[in-house]
Request: fold
Amino acid sequence: MILTGAWDGWHIGLSNKWPLAETAAGVVLFGICLWLMFNLLVEKAPDSIWNRPAFWLLGSWALIQAVNIMFYPLHNLFLKILTREWILVPWFTKFLAIFVLNLGVARTFLCPKPSSS
Reply:
C-alpha cells in the first residue's frame, strides 16, 4: 500500500485523489476481513455465529471495503461522463450503502445480544 501511494504521489502529485493507493488499501483490508471471517466460521464455538460481535464487525468492514473497491476506480469516469444533474447519484448511492453497513457496526457495539432491545 505504501508503494502504490508513493507511485501515485510521484506520477499524479500530492494534490489529487490517489485511486490506485485507495483501491490497493481496500483490497488488502477486504482480504484481511474475509480471512478473519473465514477463521470465525471454521472455529468451533458454543454460540452461534450470529451472536458474535466479531462477525458483524468484520462483515460490515468487508462490505464497506467492497463498496470502496468498486467506487474508487470509477471515480474519474463519473466525473467525466455524468451531467450536472446526475453527478451526485454515485456518491449518494455509496453514502446509503455505507450508512446501512454502519448500522451493522452499530449493532456490534450497541446490541451484542440479539434478544436485547
Q: What stands out?
A: The chain has a mean pLDDT of 78. The chain has five helices and no strands. The longest helix spans residues 19-42.
